[in-house]
Structure formats: structure tokens, C-alpha cells
Amino acid sequence: MESAAPNDSAGLLEVRDLVKDFGGLRAIDHCSFSVQEGTITGLIGPNGAGKTTMFNVITGFFQPDAGHVFLGGGDVTSLPPNELFTKGLCRTFQIPREHESMSVLENLILVAPDQMGERFWNCWVRPGEVRRQEEEIRTRALDVLRFVDLTHVADEYAGKLSGGQKKLLELARTLMTDPKIVLLDEPAAGVNRTLMKRLSENIETLRRERGITFLLIEHDMNLVMNLCNPVIVMSEGRRLMEGRPEEVQRDPRVLEAYLGGQYAAAEG
Amino acid sequence: MDQVQLARASLVAIPLILLALLILPGRKAVRLPLSIILGIVVALGLAWGMKSGNLTYMMSFSTMAMIYAILSLGLNSQWGLSGHVNFGVAGFFAIGAFTSALVTTTMPIGALAAYSQQAFGLGQPFLVGVLAAGIVSAILGYLVSIPVLRLRTDFLAIATLGIAEIVRLIFQNERWLANGPQPLRGIPQPLFCLVDKPGCSWAPHWLIAWLQPLGPRDYSFVYSMIVAVILAVIYVLLERISRSPWGRVQRAVRDEENSAAMSGKPVTFYRIESFVVGSFIMGIGGAIYAHYVVSIDYSHFNPLFATFIVWVMLMLGGSGNNKGAILGAFVVWAVWTGAQSLVDLISPALSLISPDLPSRSAYFRWMLVAILLAAIVLYKPEGLIKERKRVSDFMKGSAKD
Questions:
Q1: Do B103 and B184 have their domain in common?
Q2: ipTM for the complex?
Q3: Per-residue pLDDT reduced to its tens digit, B274-292
């Protein structure tokens, strides 16, 4: 059950032989996989398989103990999150991390890259240009809000949104830039059916129309089966297998990883 | 109304006009003329209606309150904008005060040199001193921020508290630097010539004639005018950047650092920036204090007097709101100075309880400030003026239009 070597055809995002230890616990154990451009790749696995840790290592929040991460062929291992962002990698968090004391609209405007007004002297010496740019970004933010159907709460404090709306806001934020790849950490957790349907439609639309690649962690198997292809299964820090959703669904190793010894005993 | 009252009124009018500009709502075209008229009318009324001593007291009261307002604005750009728990306000205050003192005084000569030592004395004008104070304080802020801003919340508080104590102890012990435990005296008072004979050499005749009835005792009118102008400049510049994309990144970092990083913002860079901006402002506050009290020593910069009271001011006024920072400074300073007269009033009663109680009654003021702090935290944690929801003023309108 060793994880196989990565695909020969280099993907947009490639993880090679990654190791991450927390004290005595090996959260990621020589894990390798690659995400092909233009796919919605699912990353599933039982609790504690190391999925979120994998996200944290890829996005530069944790330093790996060994191994490499490649983005578009370049080595991005251990780059800080803000530099990964400029290279076109965005992520959302499992528990939404909105900027609670700002309006929903400004949560989005914040994300736009290369804002002149973020250098404070420009606000003194070139207010006109800052104002013009701000207006452009605001228009774009309103478009994104319309896309995720949050226009009606644009002026609310982001902290006051419902759990599901916060999830949408997380997705919306990644759209304020032009990402190559977006990592979604349980986008549908705590989201009701209707909202979830809209969320998966949005993701599919973005892939089709803007060519954004997605890698998403999800426990909701319906969503994974409908949306993702391929699906990567992680277990105990390793890549267990990868395949089309229906293959994964039927694979006994996956069932064993999820259900453990009971399943093995029943089969045996 | 006599000439003295008119001359005083003209000096009082400037801070009042600035105050009116700060408070009055509405468009600039309406606000400016209205503020000028209102400021002049109120100034004339005060100069005419108040007893001379009371008016002088009011000016020195508001000068101190405005100095605190500057410190409070500095703290706001660290705590309010970006969430730094800086308990080292006193350190930056002290650095600013001593820097400006050293830059503007001249080296002691003759018999004085035996009593007073200082590392250097450049004899530069007031504004150079103020600017130097801000810059040196900002440099200290930058150097300190590199190791210290790895810390958050209470750990940052302890580290900054320690740094302020180090600064204070250096000035206490290093005699060669700024006269050590002895006060550094003779810090020049800017524009003193306006109220002195024969008047400023650069001033036009009409101005000298206008201010001619004033004497050195009226200097507090001149100084409060200077402080008001400097406070206004700081307020306008800070307000501009607080309500901008820059301020938005700061608030984003304050709310949720990881998310800001994932939105492509170099979090450490922004945290250092806001810390340095705050240090710069606090340094200027120190310089203005030094030129106000004329003689300074290390004991002025203890944490109670120079750090915690500033925190109470900011929290009372409203963290994250520059107007609140100024309002808080005035309110708390009023409580602080008002408490002294209250203590004087009740000290006969206290001496009946125990003979040595009145001598300890100074702590009564601290108790009042502490009660005030507890009341804010419990009943009005957002302060008198709440932080505004919208950050950027460069953005037009709301989402709806």
C-alpha cells in the first residue's frame, strides 16, 4: 500500500514525497500526488488522514520536514502564503476565516492584488489614482458578489453572516484575483442542500469558463462523486489510491481505510 | 473688551476653529466658513467671559490633553488599526522627548557645564526637533518590532513594557546622555518671542502691535495654538491612511492574520509598518511634551503616567477611531485633573479617619481611573465613539449604489 510515484505528465500542482511530523506523530508520510490542470480533483480520506495538514504545507503555513511542492513546474516548497498567492494559488479554510469587523464587500475588495493604496504614502500624494483604482475593484467585487449571490449582504459585517454564507464568501474571495488553482477545504461542510447545489454549480462554472483548477477536501460523498474527477484518497498520511470517483467508491482499500478492521473482519 | 482680551481671543480662536472643523458635520464648503465664525465667536466669548486665571488654566489643561491625544492617536494606529498590544508607550514618549530636547538645546557652557551634562546639543529650531523626535522614535520602533512583533497579545505587552523600562532606565543612569537622574533643563519654548519684549524679529509690525499687551505669562496661549495645529496635521494624515486600502489591510490583519496572508498580503510587513507609524506619532508627542514642560527627566516617563493612562484614553474614546482617541484623551485627562481637586476637597475628612490618609490621597486618582477603565470594559467595550464599519473612504458609496 505504498504511495505510487507521481504521474509522468507533470501536473499544475505537484506534491513529491512530502513528510510532516508533529513531535512523534507523522501527519504526512512520504505522500506524493499531482493535480492536473483544468480538473476538479477531490482529496478524501478518513478523519486524521492528513488532508488539512497537506493543505497547510502546500500553502506555506507549515514547513514540511522533507519533500517538495511544485506549482506550474516551479519549486514553491515553504514559500509564505502571500507569495503563493501572487503565483496564482488560493485557498479557503475549513472554518471560515472572514475579516469579521469589515463589510462583506470590503472583505472582497481587500483581496484584489497590487492595490496602490496599500502603500500609505500613495494615499497622501496620489489620492486620485487610488480612488480610481478603488472604484474599479469595487465594481469587480460587486460582480463577484452577484456570482455567488451575496449582493443583499454586501454591507453587512462579514462576522454576522451565516455559516453557509461565510463559505460562499470564502469562495468569492478567491475570485477577486485570477487564480490558477484554488484549494478548497471542506467547502460544503455545514452548508444546506440548496446552498451546496449552488456552490458546486459555481465551482463547475469556474472550471469550465475561467479554466480554474480545483483541489478540494470534502466529506460529503454526493458532492465528491458529482463534482470531482479524479479523486485522491489519503489515509494515515499517505496516498492510498487515485482514480475516477466510481473506481474509488468500489475500491476495497478505501472502504477499509474508512471503516477499518470491522470491514476487514467482515470480509475475511 | 480690552486689548489683552482681544489678543488672547485671537490665539484661542485657532484651536477652537480646528475643533469645530473636527466636530461639525457636512460638506467642506459649508463647514470651513462655519467653523471659522464659530471659533472666533466662542473665542471672543471665552476671553471676555472667563476670569483670566481660569482661561490660562483651561489652555494648559487642553495643551496637556492634546499631548495625550497625540499619544492616543499613536497607540490607535498600533492597537486600533492593527491590534498590537503595545504597553511601551512611555518608551517612545521618552525617546521623543529627549531627542527633541537634545536637538534643540545647546551644550551647556561655563559654570552650568559642571552641573549639566548632555551627549550633544544641536541648537536646532523647534520643528527640526519635533521631526527628529518622530524619526528617532520610528527607528527605535522599527528595530524593536523585528524581534518583538513575532509575539502576539499579552506576550507582546510584556515585551514592550520591558523595552519602555529599558529606555527609562538608560535615561536615568547615563549621565553623559541627557543629564541622567538630574533634569535636563532649558528646553526652548517655540514662538516665545510672540509674548516677549521686543517681539519676534520676523514678525510684521501689526502682529507685534496686536500681541503687545501680552506678557510671558500668556505663553500657554501660544503653545496650545502650536499643539493644536500639530495635532490637527497628525489627525488629518493619520485619518487619511486609516481610511484607505492600507487601513483595510491593517484591519484585515487584526481580524484574521492567516486569511490576510492567503489573500496575498505580507502580514509581517504591514504589522511592522503600523508599529513604526505609531512610534513616529508617539515620538512627536514626546517632543511636544518636552517643549511644554521645559525641563524633563526620566521620572516623567513611568508606565502609569505615560502608558496606562493612554490606554484608558484610547479604550474610553473608542479603539480604531481617531476621533475617539482624541475625545478619550480629553475626557480621561479631565477626570484625572478633576480628581485632584476632589481629593483636595475631601482631604480634611480623610484626615479625621486617619492622619496620614491625605498624604496618600494621590492614589485616589488612580482608583478613579481604574474604576473608569473597568466601567468601559464592562459596559461600553467599543468606547464612546464606535469604530466605523466602512474602512476605505477612497471607495465611493456603499454596495447599493
A1: yes
A2: 0.88
A3: 999 999 999 999 999 999 9
